[in-house]
Amino acid sequence: MQTVFEKTPGLTDAVLHYCPGCTHGIIHRLVAEVYTELGVSDRTIGVAPVGCAVMAYDYFNCDVVQAAHGRAPAVATGIKRARPDTVVFTYQGDGDLAAIGTAETIHAAARGENITVIFVNNAIYGMTGGQMAPTTMPGQITQTSPYGRDPAVAGYPLRMCELLATVDGAAYLERVSADSVKNIRAAKQAIRRAFECQLAGRGFALVEVLSTCPTNWGLEPVKALDWLRENMIPYYPLGVYKDSARDGKEAAQ
Amino acid sequence: MSEKVLMKGNEAIAEAAIRAGCRHFFGYPITPQTEVAAYMARRMPKVDGLYLQAESEIAAINMVLGASAAGVRAMTSSSSPGIALKSEGLSYLAGCDLPALVVNVQRGGPGLGGIQPSQSDYFQATRGAGHGDFHLLVLAPNSIQEMVDLTYLAFELADRYRVTAMLLADGILGQMMEPVSLPDPAAADLPPKDWAVTGTGGKRLHNIVNSLYLKPEDLEATNLARYEKYAVIQRREARHEAFLLDDADIVVAAYGASARIAKNAILAARAEGIRAGLLRPVTLWPFPKAAFAQAAKTARAFVTVEMSMGQMIEDVELSVRCAKPVTLCSRVGGMVPAPEQILESIRQAAGGAK
């Protein structure tokens, strides 16, 4: 019998706690496959967030620190500065990265901190039961925007890749989506480039992965994927927002 | 023994930390501790170390957490309002059982308060450093030499017990200059940091540094284990200085800069025939309870001298179990008690004004 697919050794055998249809499991696998395929899992250190992925320390088969809400880039900074030869990544949700941890995110980028940030944007606070997030769409119904997010009261969603693209220290920024096989394959390539950016010492790399939360969106998993495609991708366009390697080449031409 | 040099308190802390092997300092400017950061920014690059200026005190303490989790000696420094911002990180450091050094050069509060010296963070340091059940190991120097010696000790004890240590100074000690000697710290036999995140190297299971325990039984167990460790620290590490204490009727309790001023008042009281003495806690947590209980057997009364509205006085009263009267002599808001004010408090405790 021929093995055509197996679970990456970059993940432990722990059973994921995520809800049915949630895309966290896919994104975990992509990250773990990337650091395993790059041959650096034995010197990789992850930083887990507060939020749905808080227990990522049980799933990633590498050393992991669990950080306070939003502080993962600061914790990662301490680790990377203490051990420059390690490969350090954070795994954060939108509430963690774009609300309570906005300062830590922007300043880690501004310092050109040589870390890789995996940013899972599902437009909601999942772990606490579905409250409005900094990335919640205008009109989107959540527990704390029960009549739909009204920009006149609650303001507008943040586009983090676009915002960070103005920061000189950011070396690689790409937004991808976990909604289809094609986009998941592209997401893996983006995550690989973000880790390669760190291995090359080029500085701060972030991959934003548009993700679903069927439970808190109140949608079946397949319909949640449709909702992501119809609502999130138009507001959060996919693509590379910065690539210092490419931009450098273009500038030299 | 190294020769003596004249140093400012804040700079002495920084140099001592470097000599103790600290190569990772994460800071944020705030008066009256900024010389610690400035000294680090100047010296660290010369010794292959890192001074990194964080975007906030919150970020700085979390950088310390990351560096400590990675197994190196790391520190930050701030003053009262900045320490309040570090509360979150201090709690996580405790929950993760991580060693670190945090310096607080106290200023007056609450709120933005002022920039003059104060001791009104005693509660913050010994009781309210963050959410949850935990303690910092709190060391209170009263001279520039002690700022050096206790910085060495803080790193050693932090590594020995996997606790975060706080050096609790004040604006007087931070800013004043005294001759100081900086010997190399004594070598200590410390446990290996086999819990640190360093990369598995393919040689061990993955290490996890974490403070989350969703099962209440597990979380209770970690708290109980931590408090067993605290009990050992309380037994072994309480430190104090006794000055003219053996025959003292009136025991003055003071730490840090207040204790220096109190010594003058005690000598003046002795000149008047009042047998006064000083019991100076060097560790505020663990509090030297046994020394106070012992003193309470023979003393008639206690006077605490604090630049606060009366915070350490609670520990003095608890330690003497209210067996003897304890009164407070205080100035606050950046004001400093004068020897004459302390002398008057000693006279009152001894039986009234003359």
Keywords:
heterodimer; A: 253 residues; alpha/beta; Rossmann fold; B: 354 residues; seven-stranded mixed β-sheet; 13 helices; 40% helix; 20% strand
Q: How do you describe this structure in short?
A:
The complex is a heterodimer of chains A (253) and B (354). With 253 residues, chain A is α/β, with parallel strands linked by helices.
3D structure, described in words:
The complex is a heterodimer of chains A (253) and B (354). With 253 residues, chain A is an alpha/beta fold. Chain A has one domain (24-252): Rossmann fold (3-Layer(aba) Sandwich). Chain A contains ten helices and seven strands. Chain A has a seven-stranded mixed beta sheet with strand order 2-1-3-4-6-5-7, sandwiched between helices. In chain A, helix 1 packs across helix 7 (181-199) and helix 3 packs across helix 4 (102-110). The longest helix of chain A is centred in the last third of the chain and has 19 residues, at 181-199. The mean pLDDT of chain A is 97. By secondary structure, chain B is of the alpha/beta class. Chain B folds into two domains: 4-199 and 222-237, 3-Layer(aba) Sandwich (Rossmann fold), CATH 3.40.50.970; 240-349, 3-Layer(aba) Sandwich (Rossmann fold). Chain B is 40% helix and 20% strand. Chain B contains 13 helices and 15 strands. Chain B has helices at residues 9-19, 34-43, 57-69, 80-85, 87-95, 122-126, 144-161, 171-175, 216-237, 256-271, 289-296, 312-319, 339-349; strands at residues 4-8, 24-27, 50-53, 74-78, 100-106, 137-139, 164-170, 177-181, 208-209, 240-243, 250-253, 276-281, 283-285, 301-306, 326-330. In chain B, strands 3-2-4-5-7-6-13 form a seven-stranded mixed beta sheet, with helices on both faces. In chain B, strands 10-12-11-14-15 form a five-stranded mixed beta sheet, with helices on both faces. Classes of the chains: A alpha/beta (253), B alpha/beta (354).
